[in-house]
Amino acid sequence: MKHTTLLLLLLFALPFLPEPVSAATPKSGSITGKIIDQTAQEPVIGAVIECSPADSTKKLYTTSDKDGAFTFPKLAYGSYDVTITYLGLTSHTSQVEVAKPKTDLGTITMTPDIQQMDEIVVKGLTMRTTQKGDTLVYNAGAFKVTPDASTEKLLEKMPGIKVEGGSVEAQGEQVKKVLVDGKEFFGEDVTTAIKNLPAEVIDRVEVFDKLSDQAAFSGVDDGQGYKAINIVTQRGLNQAKFGRFYGSYGFDELYNVSASINLLKDNRRLTLLGMANNVNQQNFATDDLLGVLSSGGGRGGRGGRGGNAFMIGNQSGVSTVKMFGVDYANQWWDKLKVQGSYSFNTTKNTTEALTQREYFSAQLYDETGRDNSRNFNHRINGLVEYKINDNNQLMFRPSLSFQTNDTYSADTSATAATDGDAGNTLLNFFKSNSAANSAGYNISGDLNFMHKFGGRDGRVLTVSINGGASKNDRDNTKYSLTRYLNPDSTSQLNQLILNHSKGYRVGGRVSYSEPVSERVQLLANYDISYNYSDRDKRSYELPGDLFLDSLSNTYNSGYLTHRVGPGFRLHSDKTMLVVNLNYQYATLTGDQQFPTVSRSKMAANFDNIVYRAMLHLKFNRSNSMRVRLFSGTDNPSVTQLQNVLDVSNPLFISQGNPNLKPVYAQRMNIRYTRVNVGKGTTLGAQMTAGIQNNSITNSVERADRNGYEVKDETGNTVVVLDRGAQYSRPVNLNGYWTIDGGAYYGFPVGWLGSNLNLDLRASYTAMPTIYNLVRSTTTTASYTGGITLGSNFSDQLDFTFTYRAGYNIAHSTNNNEYFNGVGTGRIKWITWKGITLEANGSYSKYRGVTDKFTEEFFLLNAGIGKKLFKNQRGEISVQVYDILNQNKSFVRNVSENYIQNVTTNVLGRYVSISLVYNLRTLTGKDGKAYSRPEGRDDFRRDGPPPGDHPTGPPRGGGMPPF
């Protein structure tokens, strides 16, 4: 650990070592200036500034920042031509003589010029991307979509952004939150934002690393940020009403209706959403507190996701969905800012699934299942910021989620042994019916207080308190019949299982920063947290409710953590370095309350050095790199610690392990970004690597004979399995590591009038496993590449075509290699007199290399419509879904001990008639209505667009009308 710490400190010291001084350094200087819009009297953000030597054809480019300022550093002494262009404003050209270290052009005023706007559009000088600090900014006007397109369709065309199933990935990282004009939108529900906000009102999209609440509060980056997107609406809007109303009806009584409306006035924003359909459309994400949505009702053989997951995109099967949501943000008086959202949804789902699994231990498993479920979700998120005075500020973030789920499942499965040339031998049949009723909630709150000491900038004290409580109750009745062959025997199980769990967490943090110079701050912090979990499992035999004490258990665990340590922050014009090094002392306790005859207590202490470090290097205005290092611990869940057998599926028996230790993980992330404003290119690369000590994985024993005895560490028999049955238990293992890297490059293709985005990615993971008491390492490697072509020559003809292919290799006791390729495309053409033609489709292919497996299907949808109403805001259309009737839902998974293919039911071919209306009422500061003329890249009045969208608080006070 000492050598690792010294190595890290040396790594971060390298950028600050003095550079060798050349014997003959040429004289150089800089050109600076500030640009303002004469009409709006506001800074011009994103203006393109071109600088070229008077006697040369070489050109340099930069853009103006949020204050309208720009800089050309390190220019050799001499004469330069400086040209400034911006959509709708007069261009400015001047000759500048650089004969001193700094040449300031002062404030440059740009005036309206509609003719100049037309010339900029024709010449194609519209800026695609630029970089402000570590924020990558996309100009929405440089990525054309039809006027009725959603934000999702716009993001698909932007380099470095991948949209799939309602989730968004940017610069190789998952986007956790979407903001609109700097204000949060529906909490962490990214899906709702991208599917319900119209692209037509967007001015630009900003991709950045959002600081944690405490870091944003204190202004000191603590390295705990996450990827976020800020959607900036069109400049100069004072009032706006925009939304979408949609309804369709198809054969076999299929329907889909939805409505969204956004009301903006000054700093107030109110959004209302509603939807109902029975065609499996979900324009929102769902909190899966109970861990039941992704597993088809908790079927034992198939496994599923743990609790507190966040469902994004569509569920398996066919769903009937109803949803309502409201989001609100406003500035109340000058000191109080309020944001909040509420969403409700209910989903009725039917899933029919076929699972085919090939074990590396020469066994085959086939399962057919049907689940009928009804799920309800309520979610509330809030944010309150109160500026007490210039030196004191409060921030409070409450949240509440509530979920209920009722599920009925029926499963049938069979296990067979592959006996070489002799063929397959059937080992067992299994049939089960189960019904489950679940309910749970999660409530939490985080309170931050910040005090700035007068007299010196950067001297800040931050105090944070957080806490929460959760509950998860699941009552399950299950009947199963298992028939084993050779010899022939039958076992029957009829149980009532009551699984009730609850828990709470409390914590606090105190941090202090002390400036020692203009560029250096010393940091100190102390954290304390306590997490408590309690799980009570009771099993009864039916009929008669006979209590089964051998299958019942009550267990609680507590995890107390203290963390203390110093840090420092160094920042300059081109460099920022933040390092926090902490000593962590943790205590994990466990107490088995039932059965009393085997009462046991557990307590273990753990010492760790945990660290977070971030280095940001800004080589120039369009070229930067960011390095992050961090470590931390993750304690096992109470379910993993609970030492009780789960025999609800006799073929897949599991048990907890009270001796589990916390996982200690270390991770590194490097990201490089380069944009060329003049050429419109965007280049990015990222790499992530991580290792884990005491990683938690399952030790699996699969019976290859009848009477197979599973034994514990002391040699006592835990359970006896017949051939084809399986037992699993979580254990700690060392040896886990992973590395993932990729790059993307986006550029305009002039002769096609389109944008082309390329991406490559590779990953490798080594995971230690135990299978039938033999330890091994399962390695998986994946190599993927993608290409996206998006039109950019007209908002009347919009298309996007993407193809992504991957080669996957898994090595365990057996090798498995397979190829998968997915091509998608969509096109919409608004033709003569508002006649619309549109189509979208996808082609998917899975092909095994080692097992000669092939699965492929083609989905094609098409429609024809007619634009209606003033400004073609409405449309009526006829649409045909799955024209070729080939739609499938297919997934291949490779684990440490098997290959699995899962096929689930989907909607087939159907025809529908739909009517849509897009509401757009947009008003500027002067009360004049905005419009979006054909061919323009932004909204404007009967003159050019004004300055940037205001983000400051409104003048005056008073309670808002909403």
From TrEMBL:
<feature type="domain" description="Outer membrane protein beta-barrel">
    <location>
        <begin position="456"/>
        <end position="917"/>
    </location>
</feature>
<dbReference type="InterPro" id="IPR008969">
    <property type="entry name" value="CarboxyPept-like_regulatory"/>
</dbReference>
<keyword id="KW-0675">Receptor</keyword>
<dbReference type="Pfam" id="PF13620">
    <property type="entry name" value="CarboxypepD_reg"/>
</dbReference>
<dbReference type="Pfam" id="PF14905">
    <property type="entry name" value="OMP_b-brl_3"/>
</dbReference>
<feature type="compositionally biased region" description="Basic and acidic residues">
    <location>
        <begin position="926"/>
        <end position="943"/>
    </location>
</feature>
<feature type="region of interest" description="Disordered">
    <location>
        <begin position="926"/>
        <end position="962"/>
    </location>
</feature>
<keyword id="KW-0732">Signal</keyword>
<feature type="signal peptide">
    <location>
        <begin position="1"/>
        <end position="23"/>
    </location>
</feature>
<protein>
    <submittedName>
        <fullName>TonB-dependent receptor</fullName>
    </submittedName>
</protein>
<dbReference type="InterPro" id="IPR041700">
    <property type="entry name" value="OMP_b-brl_3"/>
</dbReference>
<feature type="compositionally biased region" description="Pro residues">
    <location>
        <begin position="944"/>
        <end position="953"/>
    </location>
</feature>
